[in-house]
Amino acid sequence: MSSYRETLQRVAERTLIDPEAFTKLDRRRRRRHRNRRIVAAVVALAVAAGGTWGALALADLRKQARPTSAPRLPTATASGVTISFPPGWWLMELGNLLRD
User: Fold this and answer.
1) Which of 22, 30, 79, 99 has its CA at a distance of 20 to 30 angstroms from the CA of residue 36?
2) Segment (H or E) for 82
3) Collapsed DSSP state (helix, strand, coil) of residue 76
4) In degrees, to the nearest 5, what angle opens at C-alpha 34 toward C-alphas 28 and 37?
5) What is the pLDDT of residues 44-100, one digit of tens each?
6) pTM of the predicted structure, to 2 decimals
7) Are residues 80 and 61 both part of a single domain?
């Protein structure tokens, strides 16, 4: 165990450490942290814009006119039977044309 320690101490004595190393490390850490905050803010704004757009789109759909009841279909009676049919259609009873 002591031989490993001695070897590491000899290598450490021969190694030069840059005096600016900690400053560079701190600067890089701060830059990375700043960039993460910027990305988080951009994502938050995108989510908020998407939510606002969706809410406005739903509110706009609710403003569109909707019929209060089902459209009235034409009806006619032939041979004692009353039926409803789409507009533009006619009911014929043995040669007689019946229209609403």
Assistant:
1) 22
2) strand 81-84
3) strand
4) 145
5) 999 999 999 998 888 776 666 666 676 677 777 777 778 887 777 766 666 555 554
6) 0.47
7) no
Tokens of 68: 């209060």
Residue type, 63: K
Range of the domain at 61: 1-66
> Which tokens hold the place of 58?
């739903």
Kindly state whether residues 76 and 62 are assigned to the same domain. no
Find tokens 């990375």 and name the residue: 32
Interacting residues of 67 by C-beta distance below 8 A, sequence separation 6+: none
Q: Total domain count for the chain?
A: 2
Asked if 50 and 18 sit in the same domain, the reply is yes
Which residue type, as a one-letter code, is found at position 71? P
- C-alpha closest to that of 98 among 35, 90, 7: 90
In this structure, are 78 and 52 located in the same domain?
no
